[in-house]
From TrEMBL:
Keywords: Membrane, Transmembrane, Transmembrane helix. It comes from Myroides pelagicus. Belongs to the UPF0057 (PMP3) family. This is YqaE/Pmp3 family membrane protein. It comes from the Bacteria. InterPro entries: PMP3. Signal peptide: none annotated. The lineage of its organism: Bacteria, Pseudomonadati, Bacteroidota, Flavobacteriia, Flavobacteriales. Pfam families: Pmp3. The keyword ATP-binding does not apply. The keyword Transmembrane helix applies.
Amino acid sequence: MSLGRVLLSILLPPLAVFDKGCGSILIVAILTICGWVPGIIAALVILNNPKYNK
């Protein structure tokens, strides 16, 4: 996970997980609408998940 991805996940969480799939974008977008901090946490969890890292 790069520093750019971390900054992007803080500023615009759905864009940080853009290449991880439609489901990830949808989950992060819903959590961001509900509250900005849950969206950030979800984006960071998805970015740190080794299943999605290639």
